[in-house]
Amino acid sequence: NLPQMTTSHVSQTMQSNAILAEGNLSRLASVMRKAKSGEPITVGVIGGSITQGSSASNEKNSYAYHVYQWWKKAFPKTEVNYINAGIGATNSYLAVHRVDKDLLAHKPDVVIVEFSVNDSDTTFFRNTYEDLVRKILKADNNPAVISLYMTMEDGTSAQTQHMYVGFHYDLPRISYRQAVLAEMEEGSLAWKEISPDNIHPNDKGHAIVGEIMWNFFNSVYLRMDTIDDEPEYIIKDPLSSEAYANASILDSETIEPKQMGSFKKGNIFDRFNNNWFTDSGEEPIIFDVTAKNIGIMYYKTTNGTGGQYEIYIDGEYNKTLDADFSGGWGNYAETTEVYSSKEVKTHTIEIRKSDTSTGDFFAVLGLLIS
Asked: Which residues of the chain have pLDDT under 70?
């Protein structure tokens, strides 16, 4: 009596193409045995707008909710909790700073990580993705981690970089990208059938991910009592330097600026409260921060008021951040790393309006510290 979705979009060929590797299944099987015994479990997902459910007609038609429903139906007598830590237009760089609060605080037993269309196909994002995965794997309750790879219409994806991480940690590696692009190449599937734009799955696209995941879970379910014979899962040494192992976000509740300037405290963006903002930019805001690496999360706006603000680190010009997103698809939280080193030191961060700024508004949503 294995759970089956009501849709039937995924052929055996698509399923085979999607499962790049099962990886070490010991943690996943352990969660299934825990649920089978009647102990409460928590299913978690973290990612960008696709994980949040964008372009699904409602939350219940999102892939993340489909995943949650498999656990509910497979273990109907067990309390199954659900945490969706998906936030649109965010990447694994921000996620490694927010995962403790947004996801790990809820002690998830199984986690799907999805950032392949939000991350770029670069070493930087391989490193941030790895440190995110490591944070989850090292959580006290030993959650199972599944790496999910999505795609844009033209195949753009950070799948290659993320697969390095998935391979290194022997994670289940599941690719919607491989499944749908192969069908498109064969002419049996058109992108417009599964997405209203060039990125986000519609209900059918989300259902395809759901079916792939249900089929995968069912295959593990049938073997859960024998998988404990596998070698114990051991977290390998990191591929990179673990630069973001202790990453966190500082906001107006956790740090006081050295100088407020013309900035004020406020709640500008509901997904990240406790911000600083200015409508004039007449005077800069200045922070003293002790860290190896420093990033800034700021608010991009479409209403034409966003300005260009310069970042100075220890008195030296670093870069200019542009808060203007006029004509864009919507307001969102942008992140950029402004300082990186191997030594913990105290640094002064100054954020001031550029002399050539086209707007006055600027909101600092948080400081990304590691």
From this structure: none
Dig out the tokens for 133 from the structure: 């995965």
| pLDDT for position 117 | 98
Closest by alpha carbon to 257, among 272, 276, 270? Answer: 276
Q: Which two tokens stand for residue 173?
A: 């590696």
Fold of 12-229: Rossmann fold (3.40.50)
Give the whole-angstrom CA distance, residue 292 versus residue 126: 19
Q: Where in the chain is the domain with CATH 2.60.120.260?
A: 248-369
CA 119, distance to chain mean position in Å, is: 9
Amino acid identity for residue 318 in this structure: N
Lookup: tokens for 91:
């990447």
Measured between alpha carbons, how far is 143 from 268 in angstroms, rounded to an integer?
33
Strands 308-313 and 294-300, how do they pair? unpaired
**Domain span(s) for CATH 3.40.50.1110 in the chain:** 12-229
Q: Give the burial class of 81: count Cβ atoms within 10 A of its Cβ; 0-12 exposed, 13-18 middle, 19 or more buried.
A: middle
Q: Other CB atoms closer than 10 Å to residue 167's CB: what's the count?
A: 15
Report the half-sphere exposure of 259 (CA within 13 A, side-chain side).
12
Residues 6+ apart with CB under 8 A from 172: 19, 21, 22, 23, 25, 28, 146, 147, 166, 216
DSSP 8-state code for residue 231: P
Per-residue pLDDT at 120: 97
- With vertex at residue 265, the alpha carbon angle to CA 263 and CA 270, rounded to the nearest 5 degrees, is 120
The predicted model scores a pTM of 0.97
Instruction: For residue 65, give the amino acid letter.
Output: Y
Beta strands in 165-293 (DSSP E): 173-175, 248-250, 264-266, 275-278, 285-291
Contact 235, 170 (CB under 8 A): no
Pair of tokens at residue 116: 């392949």
pLDDT at 231: 77
Pairing mode, strands 294-300 and 19-21: unpaired
Cα separation of 235 and 244, whole Å?
Answer: 17
At the topology level of CATH, where does 248-369 sit?
Answer: Jelly Rolls (2.60.120)
Q: What is the DSSP string of 329-351?
A: S--EEEEEEEE--SS-EEEEEEE
Q: What is the pLDDT of residue 125?
A: 98
